[in-house]
Amino acid sequence: MEITLASTYEQVDGAIKNVMAYAACGLGLSNGRFLFELDFVMRELLNNAVEHGNGGNPDKMIVFEIKTEDAILQVCVVDEGACFDGQALAKILRQAGPVRAAMLPEGLAERRRGLVTIAQLGWILEVSPGRVVAWRRMSDILAEK
After folding, report:
1. Cα separation of 138 and 142, whole Å?
2. Which CATH number fits domain 2-140: 3.40.50.2300, 3.40.720.10, 3.30.565.10, 3.40.50.720?
């Protein structure tokens, strides 16, 4: 499922409602904890694209995709904005143990959550300029209680 939306929080909310219905019906996901996590991941990635990626400019677009492939659930968000240092963030997210605000690249430390929280929930993040992908294995999702 792919959705293109303007950089507004109203558009984000509408897209998430559509995707959550698709996840429950189209993908057959019924695990309440996972559905909560999926909603959180999508909101965080899309709100970041609105606020940080596209600077709240409603004329800039966001392309959002959710799909399953090879038993992996993948959420991808692409925006039109400048990006933070994705390599530095990726290195931090791969580390063992808790992530501290002082470890984050400039611009992310003030927030101290978002992508770090997504990673701590067990999602794998791939960050590149203007694009963030979060994914989880379906077997991990279905095994959670």
Report:
1. 6
2. 3.30.565.10
